[in-house]
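Teaching assistant here, posting this on the class forum so everyone can see the example we discussed in section. The complex has two components, and the goal was to see what a joint structure prediction looks like when all of them are supplied at once.
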Amino acid sequence: EVELVESGGGLVQPGRSLRLSCATSGFSFGDYVMSWFRQAPGKGLEWVGFIRSRNFGGTTEYAASVRGRFTFSRDDSKAIAYMEMNTLRTEDTGVYYCSRGGRGVIAAEMFDFWGQGTLVTVSS
Amino acid sequence: QSALTQPASMSGPLGQSISISCTGSSHDVGGFDFVSWYQQKPGKAPQLILYHVNKRPSGVSDRFSGSKSDNTASLTISGLQAEDEADYYCISYSSSTLLDILVGGGTKVTVL
């Protein structure tokens, strides 16, 4: 059974950092794109970015709103994806989801499994 | 403002059908078949219900179907049931150099 579990959320002051983890099981983690989405309270879904599999260079893509502040990484040996969030802003507040993307270079082929989400609150 | 346009809300009586539109451009929805749809219920993570425009993952009801015409993709829910009340999002690949993935603003479906 495929499972994704996010952790690392919490309350953080503006300007500070936070690292989210997405622990997975039940599939060949190294073969898949891992993507991140977020959802501000009462708002719609927003794509944050993704990291491709090693087969496609492990390259990353970021939404404009987080580019230069967020960094994705992955540990294929542990089947965990990470998102390092720096210089956090109040508008980064929301529930953050990791999801499994496609197996090819086109990450948006589908996002077929999602974690339960972890809440990040940026506030002084 | 989302790059993909969806109606903010739609409603229909039990048993009826509704179609939710997702409008983009030739650089995304119109140019590729990498359109997927997600259902999200309150307090829950989104769930994939269609991918590649009209393919259903295993376990998804055949009351959900998809299509595409020009730059607009559509999700049709046939025979509306109470459990279909949820938010629905479309997602598409984009060939733009600035954006790889576009997400619709979401449509809240109410079953009357």
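For the discussion questions: The radius of gyration of chain A is 14 Å. Chain A has no helices and eleven strands. Think about how each of these relates to the inputs above.
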